[in-house]
Automatic annotation (TrEMBL):
InterPro entries: AcrB_DN_DC_subdom, Acrflvin-R. This is Cobalt-zinc-cadmium resistance protein CzcA Cation efflux system protein CusA. It holds the Pfam family ACR_tran. GO terms for cellular component: plasma membrane. One of its GO terms (molecular function) is xenobiotic transmembrane transporter activity.
Amino acid sequence: MLNAIIRFALRQRLLTLAFSLFLIGYGTWQGLNMGIDVFPNLNRPRVVVMTEAPGMAPEEVEALITFPLETTLNGATGVQAVRSSSGVGISVIYVEFDWGTDIYNDRQIVNERLQLVTDRMPNGVKPQLAPISSIMGQIIMMGMWSEGGKTPPMEVRTLADWAVRQRLLTIPGVSQVFVIGGGRKQFQVLIDPDLLLKYGITIDEVEKACAESNENATGGYLINQGPNEYLVLTKGRVTIVEDLEKVAIKTREGRPISLRDVAKVIEGPQVKRGDSSAFVKNTKFKLLQE
């Protein structure tokens, strides 16, 4: 075979030369127009399923959440491998698909499988798909502080959650933004057990009243208003501490018992968990990490 190719090349010199020049030119053109990626994605299409279960030990997370999800996802179309990690209060499952599959189609397949096992999850636990991202992605950390300490840390955290984070998510290529530190703002209800006993109220009743109070309700429409009709809306959203203090828990002898009668309502930061680094600005306007 090799001898035949050599004899053909010697007899057809011009044709062989032309074909060689064509290959050289085509290869040069492809090389000049080829995309360059310093960190190419060397992983198969992957969908990440994250499930939070506050208060559960790793053993419970493995038995009640991770194992049922793995069993359901293993039989999905195109799945090549399923790996998982169970920790304190969290389960992370990595579902890998075959090369060349569409990541959006893969996410749809995983989402359909999750619907089959949702009713078997513990109360309050719902699996969620993590944003599309590459394992070769980069993490950028930035810090926020108040000049002279004029702004409380809780307000700085609120600004980061509702202003800075939302704008960062609009930047192309940003997959997710996590905010830590400062203190997440909460309306905290500090219940007095003696007052609960005095009015004959349980903690469950207080919790139910707080949960059902933060809602708006519609009252229909006002008609016969000329060419217009008006929507009747009852505003029940809690915006300040005083709104929550006025929430009625139950009625006793014709008198409503409000939240302020059995508890103290304050604005405070969420209880912090874990440990993290902080950025501090010194007098030379340099960022130091502690």
